[in-house]
């Protein structure tokens, strides 16, 4: 699972904000700048729920000198084993695109959670669009998405689900409910004997099928 940072997990600005969750001092072109970071509600809980069932990768179009110290504080338990930055993006039509084929994992298993459609321009069928977040402390989007992603970890091909429940870059509420109720029924019938996705990723690891990671 590929996680975007800005406006998906955090919102950062150079403008001072009241009660920032994190402040960073970053050297930008020789000048030390303070960056004020607000953290989206439930980020820690989201990572804790996802880490046992997915390999977590931070993939940001921002620079490493901002993202590395930010992720250190955002993810102190190091649930996200891999971090990818602007230099790992593909510059295409004046935008930074995150080419998911570079991860060296089967495309049937990859999900990117990102607020920016241009980031997943090359593989929209692997994208779980995130509603852009700026400051709303009552936002519960990560909990909503976590429930869906827990179910999707049991799928042979995540793209089949994404094709059904994502319409115009949004989670379609009715399809979401249909999917949640159908998988709830399946799980009740079969118990939870299916392997988790993360086990599959490890098998791929052993074949040495990695590229960017
Ligand atoms: Mg973003």
Contiguous runs where pLDDT drops below 50 for at least 5 residues = 201-212
Q: What percent strand?
A: 15-25%
CATH class: Alpha Beta
Coarse shape = globular
Mean pLDDT across every amino acid position: 91
Query: What's the alpha carbon Rg, rounded to whole Å?
Result: 17 Å
Question: Which fold name fills CATH's third level, the topology?
Answer: Rossmann fold
Strand order of the largest sheet: 6-5-1-9-10
Within CATH, the superfamily carries the name HAD superfamily/HAD-like
The appropriate CATH architecture is: 3-Layer(aba) Sandwich
Order of helices and strands: EEEEHEHEEEEEHHEEHH
Give an account of the 3D structure.
This protein has one domain (2-11, 41-206): HAD superfamily/HAD-like (Rossmann fold), CATH 3.40.50.1000. The protein has a 5-stranded parallel sheet, covered by helices on one side. Strands 2-4-3 form a 3-stranded antiparallel sheet, with helices on one face. The model is unreliable at 201-212 (pLDDT under 50). By secondary structure, it is of the alpha/beta class. A hairpin with a 2-residue loop joins strand 11 (166-167) and strand 12. Helix 1 packs parallel to helix 3. The longest helix has 18 residues, at 173-190. The chain has helices at residues 43-50, 64-74, 141-152, 158-165, 173-190, 197-206, and strands spanning 2-3, 10-13, 22-28, 31-39, 56-59, 80-84, 90-92, 95-97, 112-114, 127-129, 166-167, 170-171. The chain is globular. The structure holds magnesium ion (MG).
Describe the SSE topology.
Blueprint: E1 2-3, E2 10-13, E3 22-28, E4 31-39, H1 43-50, E5 56-59, H2 64-74, E6 80-84, E7 90-92, E8 95-97, E9 112-114, E10 127-129, H3 141-152, H4 158-165, E11 166-167, E12 170-171, H5 173-190, H6 197-206
Helix pairs in contact: 1-3
The protein binds magnesium ion.
């Amino acid at each position: 699972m590929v996680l975007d940072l800005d406006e998906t997990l955090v919102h950062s600005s150079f403008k001072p904000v009241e009660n920032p969750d994190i402040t960073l001092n970053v050297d930008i072109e020789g000048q030390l700048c303070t960056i004020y970071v607000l953290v989206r509600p439930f980020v820690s809980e989201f990572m804790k729920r996802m880490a046992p069932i997915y390999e977590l990768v931070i993939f940001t179009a921002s620079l490493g000198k901002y993202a590395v110290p930010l992720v250190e504080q955002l993810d102190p338990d190091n649930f996200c084993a891999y971090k990818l930055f602007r230099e790992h993006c593909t510059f295409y039509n004046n935008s930074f695109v995150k080419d998911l084929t570079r991860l060296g994992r089967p495309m049937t298993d990859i999900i990117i959670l990102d607020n920016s459609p241009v980031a997943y321009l090359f593989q929209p069928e692997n994208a779980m669009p995130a509603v852009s977040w700026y400051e709303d402390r009552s936002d519960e989007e990560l909990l909503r998405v976590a429930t869906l992603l827990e179910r999707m970890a049991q799928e042979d091909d995540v793209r089949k689900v994404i094709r059904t429940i994502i319409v115009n870059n949004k989670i379609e509420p009715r399809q979401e409910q249909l999917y949640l109720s159908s998988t709830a029924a399946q799980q009740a019938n079969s118990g939870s004997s299916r392997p988790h996705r993360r086990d599959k990723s490890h098998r791929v690891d052993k074949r040495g099928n990695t590229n960017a990671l």
